[in-house]
UniProtKB/TrEMBL annotation:
The gene is cbpA_6. This is Cellobiose phosphorylase. It comes from Pontiella desulfatans. One of its GO terms (biological process) is carbohydrate metabolic process. Keywords: Glycosyltransferase, Transferase. Gene3D superfamilies: 1.50.10.10, Glycoside hydrolase, family 65, N-terminal domain, Maltose phosphorylase, domain 3. Pfam families: GH94_b-supersand, Glyco_hydro_94.
Amino acid sequence: MTSIEQYGRFIPEEGCFELTAPPPRKWINLHYNLIGDNEIYSEITNIGDGRTVCRDHAGNTCVLVDWDHKYCYIRDEKSGTVFCPGGEPAPQQVDNVVTKYYPAKTITTGECIGLKVEQRVFVPLDHPMEVRTVWVENATAEEREVSVFMYAMFQLNGCDSESNTVWKDNLSFIEPEINGVLVVNRHADVPTGRYKGYVVALNHYHGASGYRDYFTRSDFSLGTPKILWGWDADNKPGMGPDCAGVVQVKIKIPAGAKGRADFLLGQTSSLDEVKGILQQTNEQTVDGWCAAQEAAEAKRTNAFTVDTGNENWDGLLNTFVKKQLYSYLLNKAGFRDNLQCDCALALCDYEAAKGNLLRALSSQYANGSVPHGFRPLNDLLYSDQPAWIFLTVPWLIKESGDFSLLDETVPYLGSDETGTVWDHMLRAMRYLANDTGANALCDQHYADWNDGLEATKEAGDRESVMVTMQFCFGMKEFVELAQRRGDSDVAGEAQGYYDTFAARLNDVAWDGEWYVRTICGDGYRIGSAAGKEGRIFMNTQSWAVLAGVASDERAELCMAAVDEHCEKEVGFQVCAPGFSKYDPRVGRNSGSLPGTGENGGCYNHAAGFKAVADCMMGRAEEAWRTFEKVAPDNPLNPVSNSECEPFSFNNFYVQVPGFMGKSGYPWRTGTSGWFTMLMVEWILGARRHYGGLLIDPCLPKHIKSAGIQRTYRGTVFNIKLDNTSGRCKGAVEIRVDGIPMVGNLLTCIDGGTHEVHVMI
C-alpha cells in the first residue's frame, strides 16, 4: 500500500482518480477548450475553486477569476442550512464527500440534511466558459425547496500581447436577459473587447448580485457569507476592483426526486454574445458538450497505455498525462516550454503538436534568434530558445514519418520574410554557430534554460556551456535529417559545427570530474569544484551525455558526480550545494531561498534530462529510480508529505529544512513531457525513429516484465517486455505476431494491430 491510498485510488475502468478523504492540500484538476483564438484554462479543486484564465491567438491574457474566488453553495430554505458540495468553504458538515477527477470533468458528491448533491464541472471544446451543473436529490419523505448560489469574483486584468500589464476598472451589470451578471473592465488600456466576464444560470434565476461586499459580511469571508443568515441576491450592480457575479436559483424538489441547476461562467465580447449562447443552450446541450469533451480526451488517452507494474504510475500516464501535455500549450508562453511539450504531445496528438510548433516558429526572427516567449511576446534574449528547434522538428518527423513538415511555410516575426521550416532551422543553426563569446562557446545573453542565471552588470558577458551542448545535440539531429533529405552540403556543415563545438567544450568546460555550467567574462566559472556553493550543475552533465560530447570515461565521471552530489531522497538538485546568499555573478538564481527551485531545489524537469541520459548509458537502475523519485508518492517522500496530486507531475520538491519534499506547481511544468518520453520511449523502449518504431528498453533487474500499447503512425503495437534474464538493456529477441524479426526496428506500419514480444 502506498500513501496515495489513504486519500483515494485510480479507477482504470472509469478513467478517473477517486478522492475519498481530505487531501493534504487542495488538489487541482484542469479543464480547457481547444487551442485556438479564444482559449480558457480553468482550474478546479476538490472544494470547487480555482483560477480561470483566458487567452487569445495573439497572447492577450485575461485573468477571469483568481484563486479562492468561485464557489457553489446550497441552502435549504426551510432550515436555513447552507453547505457546499465539497464540504468547504461553508462550515456545515457534509458527509460522504467524494471527488472524482476525470480528464474531461470533475465530479464532487456529498450528503447533508437529507440532500444528496452532485456537482459536475467541465469546459466545452468550443467555448471559453466553465460549465457547472448541480444536481440535488431529495432523499427525504417531504418536498424540499433549495437555493443554489453560484459565486465568482472577476479580476479581468492580465497582460496584452506584448506582456504589458492590463489594469482593471470594473463595472458589473445585472442582466435579466441572460439570467445573471455581466462584468466589464472599462479601463482605457484594455487591448481587446474581451476583458469581460459573465456568470449566468440556464434555469430561471431568482436573483443576482454584482459585488463581493454584497455577498459577504465585513470580514469578506466566503466561508460565512450573508446567505447563512437568509440573504437573497439583491439585484444590485457593482463598481470597483471586487466586482463579482452572484446568481441564485430556487428549486422545489419533490420527495425522492432530483432538481438541477446549470451555471455558465465565461469570457465574452458583449452581452449579445452571451444572449446568443443562451438561446442555443439547454440541459441537453450542456450534456452534449460534456460528452464531446470526453470523446476528445479519450482519443488522446487511447494513443498509448503503459503497464509498469505500478498502478499509480499507470494511472498517471494512461489517464492524466496526456491532458497535462495538451493543457500546457494553453497556459505557457515560453518558446522552449512549448517546443519541449510538442515533442511529448506528438505521442498522443500529433496534429496539435505540429500546429503549435508552426505557431511557435512564426515568432522566430529573420536572423534566426527567438524571443523568450510568444503569446504573449517576451523579447528578452534567452540563448537556449533556438536550440529547441533542432530537437522538436526531427522528433515530430520521427513520430509521423511526414517529411513534408520541412516544406511548410512560416513567417518571421517583425519581417515581411517567410521561410520553410527547413529555412527556419538553417537560420537558427547559423545564428547559434556565430553567436559566441570569448571562448567561442554559445553566448548566454540574458539567461538560458535556467531563467535564474540572469545577466547582471557584475557578471559581464557569459557563455552557456549547457546551450553549447544543446547546439551539439541539435547538430547531430541536423546531420541525420539533412542526409535523409538528401542535402549533403547542410549535413557537412552541421557535422563541422558539431566537431568544432564539441572540441571546444572538452577544451574549456571540463572541470576535472564534471563540466562547468557557465563561464563569465572575468573568468569566473559557475558550477566548478573550485567554488564553495553551486559547485556542480546537473544539466551540463546530462547534456554532455545527450549530445555525445563526453567520452565514455568522462560520461561515467559526470553521472557518478550527479549520483554523489545531486541525488537526494526527494529528487535531484539542479545545482549542489545551493547558494546561501546572493552572488551578482550568478544572478537571481543565487538570491532564491536555498533549497527551492533551481537554487538547490529538486527541479523535476531537469531530472528528465538526466534520466534519458541514464538510459542512453544503460543505467537502468538509475533511470527507474529517477522516475520513482519524481513521480507522486516517492516511497521516501510520500504524498502525505509532498502534498502533490497523484494524477499530475509537478515542478519541484524543496530541500528546505522543515519543508523537505514539499511539492510545487502541479500541471504547469515541463516535467510531464520529459517523463512521458522517458517512460514510453526510453524505459519501456518504444521509441520513434525515421524508419519505424525502435525497440530499445531499459528496465531495472527487479522489474521482470512490463508492457506498452502504442499507436504509431496509425498502427497499434501491443508490446510485452520480458526481463526475466535481468539483462536490463536492449533486445536479444523480438517476435512480431509470433515471427522472429531481424534487428529492433518495427517497420510493419500497415494500420493494423501487431503483438510484439521482446526478450531483453
